[in-house]
Design a protein that fits this description.
The complex is a heterodimer of chains A (112) and B (113). With 112 residues, chain A is an all-beta fold. Chain A contains no helices and eleven strands. Chain B has 113 residues and is mainly β. Helix content of chain B is 0%, strand content 55%. Chain B has no helices and eleven strands. Chain B has strands spanning 3-7, 10-14, 19-26, 32-38, 44-50, 56-58, 64-68, 73-78, 87-94, 102-103, 107-112. In chain B, a hairpin with a 4-residue loop joins strand 7 and strand 8 (73-78). The radius of gyration of chain B is 13 Å and the shape is globular. Classes of the chains: A mainly beta (112), B mainly beta (113). The A-B interface holds A 4, 31, 33, 35, 42-43, 45, 48, 50, 56, 58-59, 91, 93, 97-106 and B 32, 36, 41-46, 49, 51, 90, 94, 97-106.
């Protein structure tokens, strides 16, 4: 597809389980970002990739959160031992010019 | 640190009326400024951006915004609201290319027929 693709679109998980969220950026985009959107906190930055490296991971809220990017393309955000406060929409964005980010539709995570 | 304040979490306008969404920012360096729109259950779509040059920026769907450095503002306007403008709008700032975006809290727009 032409846009940023995220999967799954919805995920319900039990508290304490691990989850993996996937992002397929626009082909050729070197920059990739993860954001979290929740009712209480609005839109928060999580991590930024340039190629396969992450020069800015300052937004990851705890060591339960990690992300990787392989081949300069697909990225996976992993949340270990999920908690109810992790419930949110996780948005991925990619960019070529680094000034215009294109967002995916997000993964809605619900921890029960 | 950067921050963005959007005045009014909800705005209601009549179809055909002016849409004005307010955004003020704080930044230690000249910022790059953005407005994004989010329709229900969708990601964010870029409406317009200010980087350098002309301070009045025109975007998609008839929206425009003016960067006023002296007021640290980047308000978004549209002369005549359409029903399809009902969505949530986010103002964002970054200090350099490749840096993270810092978002305001968002303004949800309701358009009344």
């Amino acid at each position: 597809g032409a846009g940023v693709s995220q999967s799954p679109s919805n995920k319900v998980t039990e508290k304490g389980k691990d989850v993996e969220l996937r992002c397929d950026p626009i082909s050729g985009h070197t920059a990739l970002y993860w954001y979290r959107q929740s009712l209480g906190q609005g839109l928060e930055f999580l991590i930024y990739f340039q190629g396969n490296s992450a020069p800015d991971k300052s937004g990851l809220p705890s060591d339960r959160f990690s992300a990787e990017r392989t081949g300069g393309s697909v990225s996976t955000l992993t949340i270990q031992r999920t908690q109810q406060e992790d419930s949110a929409v996780y948005l991925c964005a990619s960019s070529l010019s680094e000034l215009e980010a294109f967002f995916g539709q997000g993964t809605r995570l619900t921890v029960v | 640190a950067q921050s963005v304040t959007q005045l009014g979490s909800h705005v209601s306008v009549s179809e055909g009326a002016l849409v004005l969404l307010r955004c003020n920012y704080s930044s230690s360096v000249p910022p790059y400024l953005f407005w994004y729109v989010q329709y229900p259950n969708q990601g964010l779509q870029l409406l317009l951006k200010y980087t350098t040059g002309a301070t009045l920026v025109k975007g998609i769907n008839g929206f425009e915004a003016e960067f006023k450095k002296s007021e640290t503002s980047f308000h978004l306007t549209k002369p005549s609201a359409h029903m399809s403008d009902a969505a949530e709008y986010f103002c964002a700032v970054t200090k350099a290319a490749g840096n993270k975006l810092t978002f305001g809290g968002g303004t949800r727009v309701l358009v009344k027929p």
